[in-house]
Amino acid sequence: MKITMILATLLVACGAAVSVADRSPSFTATIETPRSASPTVEPTKPPFAQPPLDPPSAIIWAIDRSDQSDRPYFFELHYDGAAMGFRVIDPSGRLILRLPIAGSGIFDRTTCMAALQQQRARGAATWILIDDPTLRELFLNGSTYRVEVDTVGHGTLTLPLEYSGCRRT
């Protein structure tokens, strides 16, 4: 009987409903597993589909100086329209750089970022840090590069990559 009580206590601790009937010389233990309520799924917000937003129609690039020794440059993409991410590719389709939508960052008025944003009143920009070899490759081959743009509601667009002429290094 003592072992039965220990077993019943353990089973109860694990969440099972236990009923023990003491019968002479042996006993019977019945174990009932708890029934889980089948939850009903209800949306907390009604479904919403993002309407398409105007995609970029032009993308230009610029270079600013960073204070990081291993990646001393900001590679910036300036664009109009709405986008979710960018991939700079060479003519064969090889990925050169991937740029997510970056936070605003802090760029003073002497930077290309500030100058180009002022010129392009309705434009947006994103950036990543790059190293010296990447900067050299951009200046050597950048005129042949294209940009794949992940748009909002229009799939992926491919646009030419144009140099803005702005380099503050």
Secondary-structure map with pairings?
Layout (H helix, E strand, L loop, with lengths): L1 H12 L3 E6 L4 E6 L26 E7 L7 E7 L5 E5 L5 E6 L11 H8 L4 E7 L1 H10 L4 E5 L5 E13 L1
Parallel strand pairs: 3-9
Antiparallel strand pairs: 1-2, 3-4, 4-7, 5-6, 5-8, 8-9
Brief characterization of the structure:
The protein has 169 residues and is an alpha+beta fold.
List keywords for this structure.
single chain, two-stranded antiparallel sheet, 37% strand, Immunoglobulin-like, alpha+beta, 3 helices, 169 residues
Describe this structure in words.
There is one protein chain. It is built from three helices and nine strands; from the N terminus they run H-E-E-E-E-E-E-H-E-H-E-E. The model has no long low-confidence stretch (mean pLDDT 83). The longest helix is centred in the N-terminal third of the chain and has 12 residues, at 2-13. The chain has 169 residues and is α+β, with helices and mostly antiparallel strands. It has two domains: 2-32, no CATH class; 59-168, Immunoglobulin-like (Sandwich), CATH 2.60.40. It has helices at 2-13, 112-119, 132-141, and strands at 17-22, 27-32, 59-65, 73-79, 85-89, 95-100, 124-130, 146-150, 156-168. The strands form two sheets. The protein has a seven-stranded mixed sheet with strand order 6-5-8-9-3-4-7. It is 18% helix and 37% strand.
DSSP helix count? 3
Structural class: alpha+beta
Q: Would you identify the regions where 5 or more consecutive residues have pLDDT less than 50?
A: none
CATH topology of the largest domain: Immunoglobulin-like
* Tally of separate domains: 2
Largest sheet: 7 strands, mixed
What is the first-to-last residue Cα distance? Answer: 85 Å
